[in-house]
Amino acid sequence: MAADRDAFYMRQALALAARGRGRTSPNPMVGALVVDSDGVIVGRGAHEFAGGPHAEVHALADAADRSSGATLYCTLEPCAHVGRTGPCAPLVAAAGIARVVVANEEPHPIAGGGNRFLRARGLQVTSGVLAEEAAKLNAPFFSIVRRRRPFITIKVAISEDGMVSAGQGVRTLLTGANANRYVHRERAEVDAVAVGSGTVLADDPMLTARVAYRHRPLTRVVYDSRLRTPPAARLFWTLGEGPVIIVTSPQGVATNPAGLAALENAGATIQVIDSGRSLDVSVAALGACSTSSVIVEGGPSLHRAFWDADLVDRVQILVAPRTIGDAGLPWLDGTIRNSSRITWQDSRHLGDDVLLEGYVHRAD
């Protein structure tokens, strides 16, 4: 069947697109295949880094003169607008491609422009093949374009009885080496990591991607309304890895001017935002700077604030095979884990730990 054949090739295009993880932001990850009339793949391409040639350009160059009469499979419709590089749709038409199969259309306000361009020039265009899988791959891109804010993941490590630590302010190592490597790989693929000041005080994290190579700086965000972050925190040892932004309140600045000066001297960028609007405003500011993805790593108070502000798109829970007991610090009392708004889509072992991953239902 034609639909099965299209899905077969689109899966391979999606695998090509995924090679761009951590390298294409704020652009999407895109993969493309050129398939001749005999079903032979004659060209492959992927968007490899932001500002670089698009996937279609690579695939058409790989196919060379074998593009005539072939089918192009592309995970995102070929663009018809001029951005950092030239439009791809005219190149596709000029190469003699007969049919184009697309997973996702470009998001508003340019949705369908490339497809319309190609149809107007006689090419057959099929859209929506493996659209859900492709949209998940590029969720940060669609979020930044449609909602003008990053795609936000909250990540937590908990014990089997739902505790994040042995007590308030107590540093507690829960997960093993495999889960920790996973966390660092995830950091390598996003634009920013956020924590609350309580996490900085308890754990003194660097919030870097230490077991995976990053292709660009990693922004570290600390929500600290009272300016409690120590200027000697390890975050400031690694400013070469990316900036540190302290989001604080006018009250914090007024009551702790010495702390403000010390943090600025340590290299922090200070954002002063009214406490009642700090999440919405700070997230919008990150989006305006082309930050398309953020992992909020803790702690429970910050997770609840993001959840209550309806700013959570994905939830990742790492469950360690141990119990802490009633004296421990609980993670939101099941508020998120048991929410009917989340579709849990992934459960897998990372060594002795289990990763649960779910996506929040959204009308947009």
Question: What does the model show?
Answer:
This protein has 364 residues and is of the alpha/beta class. The chain has two domains: 1-141, Cytidine Deaminase, domain 2 (3-Layer(aba) Sandwich); 149-359, Dihydrofolate Reductase, subunit A (3-Layer(aba) Sandwich). It has twelve helices and 16 strands. It has helices at residues 2-17, 55-63, 89-94, 113-120, 131-137, 139-146, 177-189, 197-203, 250-255, 257-266, 278-288, 300-308, and strands spanning 31-35, 41-46, 71-76, 99-104, 124-127, 151-159, 163-165, 192-196, 219-223, 244-248, 269-272, 293-298, 314-320, 329-330, 342-350, 353-360. The strands form three sheets. The protein has a nine-stranded mixed sheet with strand order 11-10-9-8-12-6-13-16-15, with helices on both faces. The mean pLDDT is 92.
Keywords:
364 residues, alpha/beta, Cytidine Deaminase, domain 2, Dihydrofolate Reductase, subunit A, 2 domains, nine-stranded mixed sheet, five-stranded mixed sheet, 12 helices
Quick overview:
By secondary structure, the chain is an alpha/beta fold. The protein has helices at 2-17, 55-63, 89-94, 113-120, 131-137, 139-146, 177-189, 197-203, 250-255, 257-266, 278-288, 300-308, and strands spanning 31-35, 41-46, 71-76, 99-104, 124-127, 151-159, 163-165, 192-196, 219-223, 244-248, 269-272, 293-298, 314-320, 329-330, 342-350, 353-360.
